[in-house]
Amino acid sequence: MGVAAHEVTETSSPDTIESWDSLQHMKLILAVEEAFGVQFSDRDIVSIKDVQSLIALLGRKPGT
Fold first, then answer.
1. Distance between CA atoms of residues 13 and 45, nearest Å
2. For residue 59, how far is the Cα from the chain centroid?
3. Which stretches does DSSP call E strand in 15-56?
4. Whole-angstrom Cα distance, residue 53 to residue 47?
5. DSSP codes, the chain
6. In the chain, what is the greatest distance between 2 CA atoms, to the nearest angstrom?
7. CB atoms near residue 48 (< 10 Å)
8. Which tens digit of pLDDT belongs to each residue from 16-48?
């Protein structure tokens, strides 16, 4: 998304990262799925509102 890693916090969201649009959201989801070997459902994907909710969801996936 063109944001330095040190600028991303648990509260980072589409409201705080200008380039976080629906396409970037899906790219983020795909990258996380590939990196952690998980798969998110459509319901999971729409529930992700910020980095914190992504981390929480990832923590509930078996094997992560």
1. 14
2. 12
3. none
4. 8
5. ----GGG--TT--TTT-TT--HHHHHHHHHHHHHHHT----HHHHHH--SHHHHHHHHHTSTT-
6. 32
7. 21
8. 999 999 999 999 999 999 999 999 999 999 999
Q: Which two tokens stand for residue 57?
A: 């969801």
Q: Give the C-alpha separation, 26 to 6, whole Å.
A: 21
Residue type, 24: Q
Q: Domain 5-59 classified CATH 3.60.21.10? A: no
pTM: 0.86
d(CA 2, CA 42): 25
> Residues 6 or more apart from 36 whose CB is under 8 A from it?
58, 61, 64
